[in-house]
Each structure stands twice: as C-alpha cells, then as structure tokens.
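Structure ticket #2291
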Amino acid sequence: MTAATLTSPGDALTRRRRVTTLLVLGLLAGLGPFTIDLYLPAFPEVKGEFATTDAAVQLTLSATTLGFAFGQLVVGPLSDRIGRRAPLLIATSVHVLASVGVALAPDIVSLSLLRIVQGFGAAAGTVVAMAMVRDLFSGKKLTTALSRLALVIGIAPIAAPVVGSWLLGILHWRGLFWVLAAYAVLVIVLQLLFLRETLPPHLRHVPGHSTLRQRYRSVLTDRVFVGVAIIGASIFGGMFAYLATSSLLLQEVYGFSPSGFGLIFALCSVAVLIGTQSAGRAANRWGAQWVLAVSTSLLIVGASLIVVLDLAGLGILGLVPPLALFAFAFGLSMPCVQTLALAGHRGEAGTAASLQGALNMSIAGLVSPIVGLFRIENAIPMGVIMLICGILATAALWLVVRPRQVPAIE
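Resolution: structure written out below.
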C-alpha cells in the first residue's frame, strides 16, 4: 500500500495485526460491562448474606456505574494529553486491587465503596478502546471498526449476567470478583504484549485542541455530538432498567433458576449481537443517522409491548419477545451513536468518548435507584422506564441531531 492510499493509520496495519488489535480492544471494552453486570444473578445471595434490602443491593450497582462514569471523565481527557497506554495500564491495575477488595468485603457498605473504586478502574478500558479505534480509523472503516467494538460493548452487559449465573453454579458470589480480578490481569498482559501507542506526541498538542477547556468546548459545541450523546444515554438507561430489574423479576416473580435466568439473558444477547453486526453495514449504506431513525422507533415499540402485554396478563410469554426486540434496537443503535459522536473529533477522541460514556453510566446509575422505588411484582415499572428512555432517544434524534443536516461520513 502506497502512502497516497493511506487514509488513516489503521490502513498501515496488516490484516492479522488489525484483527489482533480489535480483539484486544474488545476485551478491554468488555471489562467495564462485565465489572458492572457479572454479579447481577447474585443479588439474592448478597441480600441474604448481608441481611439487607433490595434497594441496598441495587445501590451497589449504582455505585459501580457512578465510579465508572467518573473514571471515564478522568481517563479520557488524560489519554488525549499524555497518550493512551499509561492511563490504561494504571486504571486497570486499580481495578485488580479493587476487585480483590470487593471479594473480601465484610459488609454491604464496604462492598458499595469498593465497587465505586472498581468502577473507576474499569472505566479506562471502554473509553480508551474507543479513542484508539478513532486514532486508527476514519470514514466508513471507522463505522465498521466501531461496530465490531460495539459488539462487545453492547453484548457484554447482557452476556455478563449469563456468565455470572453459570459461575454461581460452581462458585460463591465472592468468587465472581476473583474472576474479575483475573480478567483485569489478563487484559493488562495483553495490553503490554499487543497494543502500541496510537496517539503520537505531535497530535497531543494541536493548536485549538491542546487544553482541556478547548477539547471540551470543541465537543460540547458540536450539535451532533450532543444529540447522539443524549441518545446513547437514553438507550443505556432503558437497557439498565432491564438489567437492574431482571434478576429479581425473573427469579423471584417468575420463579426462574439462575440457569433459566441466564437462558433469557442469552436470548437477548443474541438479539444485541444481530443488531450490532447489522448496524455497520446498514450505516455504511444509508447513513448512521437514518439507522438511528429506525432503531429508536423500535425501542419505543419494544418497550410499549412490554407494558401492554404485561397488562394483558401474558406473563413471561409476553415479556421475552419485546425484550429481545428492545435488545436488538439497542445493538442497532450503539455503533451509530459512537460513529456520529467520534467522527468529527479525532483531535479529542478520548474526551469525546469519555463524555459519552460518563453520561451513559450516570443515567444508568440513576435508573437503578428509581427502579428500586417500586416493588418488583410485574414488568410494568421496568417497561415504563424503558419506554420513557426510548421516547427521549427519538426526540433527541429529530430535535437535536436532525438527520437531514448530518454531513455524510466518507
């Protein structure tokens, strides 16, 4: 390949090197969702061991997401300033120590506090992985690469509880956090072996984009970024309403075993997978903004069906199909949101990814205690919150992003 045909640094990578890099970045991006969601099936065990309430256990989930959000706000801009690798290695090491602490936590308060630190340490994987993809690729190749990354980011929150439910068959709930510590150690080793620095020194101090204030101004004055950030936060909020409720809903209301609970999650994982892998091709053909027009509409349809079919008394048979539809729409949305958020911000990719991710996790963290205000006796509270999130995402697309005004990504 000649210099004239190189449009982004990723073009210079061999196919094998490109695949290896994306695989490692995918594992990094998955650390955050697995940290947040792996122990969802263990909620009843945690509640019983500490003799606490549903709301207190759900608060440990909020603690993790808030730590994750804050960590992204720190790590993302820092990676724009000093490079990607150092913040990534330091934060992931913090995650290892926090995971060990959580595994040994003596009470629910200690567990919650350590989960904040664990969330902070996990934040680097997702935000830096997205920034490194933006460093390497542009145009339609960026959309394709982000769809591969979104496969992990989108499917991990749903697959993690499946893995957690299987692990609970052989481990105590504390063992899940030893598994997370081992996962973090693995990705540290992979970082050292396979990831090179993707942000060269001369790109860390571009005039007009070199200070934290300039980077934030560039991102926050971009109407498209603001709009897709709202969309991303809304759909994450809707998915998190499902994640925060499903363990108690499926196991205590519908009587599923941990393995049965995992089976339902596996179905939704497949729906997310289909959505993320459809998104790249569809966005390259019709434009990411028009794919979002379809996916946000499907969010509303899926959430509405959850409420209507539950009111009709169909039980689990009326719950699973619309949940799968919502999961598919979530998967279809995520690569498009990430593409539109990062396409115009190569100079501050870490800052843009951190703002987007922090908003996602902040809204997700607020959803959990809201869900905790309701007694989990049916799917209606979950469905209503998912519906509100779908409506917000659709409104942000048409009122803020304005699909007809989005420039084509070449």
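Closing remark: The radius of gyration is 20 Å.
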